[in-house]
Every structure is written in structure tokens, then in C-alpha cells.
Amino acid sequence: MCPAYSRQSRGLVASEAMLDLSVLAQRHIGPVGVAVSGGGDSVAMLLSLSDWAQAHGIDLAVATVDHGLRDESAAEAVWVGDLCRRLGLPHRTLLWARDADTSGNLAEQARDARRVLLARWIAQQGGQTVLLGHTQDDVAETFLMRLARGSGLDGLSAMRPVHDREGVRWLRPLLNASRDDLRRYLRDRGQVWHDDPTNEDDSYTRARTRKALAVLRDLDIDSQRIARTAHRLSLNRDVLVRTTDQLAMSCLHQSKFGELVLSNATFRSAPEVLQERLLQQILQHFIGPTHPPRHTSIARLRSEITRGASMTLAGVQMRWTNAASYFYREASALPARANLSRASTLWDHRWTVAGGGNSASQIGPLGTEGLRQCGPRPQGLRASVAVGLPALWEGPKLVAAPFLSPYDGVVFRLRRFGVGAPH
Fold first, then answer.
1. Which residues, including other chains, have CB under 8 Å from residue 108's CB and lie 6 or more apart?
2. pTM, entire model
3. CB 48 within 8 A of CB 12
4. Measured at the alpha carbon of residue 98, what is the angle toward residues 38 and 341, in degrees to the nearest 5?
5. pLDDT for 342
6. Which of 128, 195, 232, 247 is 20 to 30 A from 59 in CA distance terms?
């Protein structure tokens, strides 16, 4: 179902087929961020939201991420800024300072960088919500691209209209809107836009997928039908997520030191699909919201627990005993020392360090040297886990570490398993 729109109101109508923006009006804190690239999808979203926000007394803030990958990108960001000034909205261009030596999937790096830049920006504005312009066509294209890679249920499920990550609530209000309808809406308003030319470049997988969709229409396979299938799969995914959470509550314990302890007997009694989903969730608790290891690696980890063997995977050590399997951070995978940049610092995805820092302070792993400077270890804290604890350093001197070297004004908080965990 495509969004209806009214020429008289000159704005998209938030119908039942779209995200209910009235919820946003009740729950938002600070200004609502809108990510606008200058393409037709995000420009249509901006115009419709401008009308809606004015009617509901909502403050909007707009940001454009310039990845610096195309010569035209800087001018497009300036164009979005001009459009925002005409609408009476604040605009900011966010520049990606990419490491020239970085290798790997550039599109993936750009996507991750965009999310981090937007999260930091909206936090600076005093807000907690950012709207993204993904459409029904994006859902269908992503489905086909992941199908080609052999993805499972999670990969083939539709994008979530609402999800929390990086301390931000991300909303996608146009997932039921087609790209054609959005452009028709823009033409009716006399509004131009600037689509990314790489969308037509066959060297990019998404561009080839977009053209393949046009061919599939002869088989009655279009974006709307594919999006409906992806949505039905997402309902199945959500059931598995809830069931996996129930399994976690029955067989997983988190120690105050950050170690995750898995009851082998209860774990083994669960279906394999739930076992593997729980192991993936355990790994992502330690390594953060990055791409998890491949299914074959997680299946091997499950097999090692079943047969009774220890294993290291993706920077996480699993120590097997007859009664339980213990998961903790691999010391060599921990982040190196870094300067404290804020009063509160998130370290290694799980620990928040607040207070006690100065210009000479650094946050990093306790390590064997820090452990040597500490007193006796508390009961239950093994050395292999202790060396992976966060520590506040001033040069070679250990200032503070949780449980081992307390210091007035320094607070270490451990994120509980499952809180903010990506599903």
C-alpha cells in the first residue's frame, strides 16, 4: 500500500500503512533529526515532515552526511542547506574523515560512519531521534541482495521501522511508500531533487539489483510483493527473538565482572536454531553492533560446546567446563589505551567510565601490568577475566579499575546482557 497525499495540505498523510508519527509527537526528546542526502526519497520525507512538524509544534533539525566519495557531494550538501533555509529549518553538513589506508567494503564503512556521525550530531542538538528515508523499494532491493548472498531469516526480514542503536532511536517513516509515488509527490510540488548517480552505475550491486527488479515485474514480482514477504519474515524473526530471550533468561547468567556463564544442560536441551541465535547474541554483546561471525563459525561454536571443548571466536574466549561455558573478552582483542574525551566514556561496548579523568588520563585494558599493581583479586574473579577489565591510567601508573583498584570519583558501570543488544 502506497502513502496517500493531499495537494491541499501539500504533505504526505501518515496513514495506517506508514509509521504513526503521532507517537513521535508524544515521545520525542529535544529536536527530531532528519537525515537528508538530497535524493528524491529524503527530500520528499523532509518536505512532508516540515508540514507535519509545523502542525504539531515539533522542532526539526536536518543533517547531510558528505562522505567525500563523489565530486558532487559537497555541492549537494550545500543545496540541501539552501532548501532547509527556505523551509526555516537548521541544517548541518557532517563530513566523514575516512582513513586513506582503510581497506574492505567501502559501502559498508560509509554506512557505519553515517550512523555514527548522525548519532553524535543529534546528541549534540539535545535530541534522541533521527528519521531515515528508506522506502519500500529499499526493502525489496535489500531482500534480493541478501538473497543472493544466501542470508537467513534475519537478513531477509524487512528493515525495522523503529530501532534503537548508538543511544539513538532511528525511525523509518516511509517503508510503505514507493519511490515512484514519492517522486510524483515532489513533481506535484514543483520540487527538484538530486539523486546519487551511483544508483545507475552497474559497478554497484544495488544499481544492478534495481534494474533486475524492473525485469522481474514481468513475472509479477515487484517491490510491493517482495516487501510484503520481507515483512512476514520479520514477524517470524520477532518470534524467534522473543523465544531466544526466554532461553537466555533460563540458562545465562552475567557475573558482576562481565563474564557470561551459560548452563550447558539447559542450553543443550534447546533447538539448534535457538542455540545459535543465543550464541550470536552473546558474541555481539562483547564485540558490539558489528556484523556477527558467519553462520558456519557460530555453528562450530555450538558444536564445541556440545562436545565439550573451549574455543576463541571474534575476540571472545569461551572456556568450557562440564557444568557451564564461560564467555569473556579475549585480551588481545581489547581496544588500546585512548585519551578520555568526555566526562563519561563507553569502553569496549560494555563498560561506562565516568569521572576522575584529566588531560593525562587514559582508558584501556587492565592487562597483566595493571593486575600486578592491584591487590588480591576478589573471589570468583579469574586472572584471564581480570586482565580484560577497564582501567584508568596515568602513564605507567594504574589509577583505578573496577573491584581491584577503587578510586574516589571514578565510577565503572557494566552494561547488562540484553540491554541495548542488537536483534
1. 291
2. 0.80
3. yes
4. 105
5. 61
6. 195
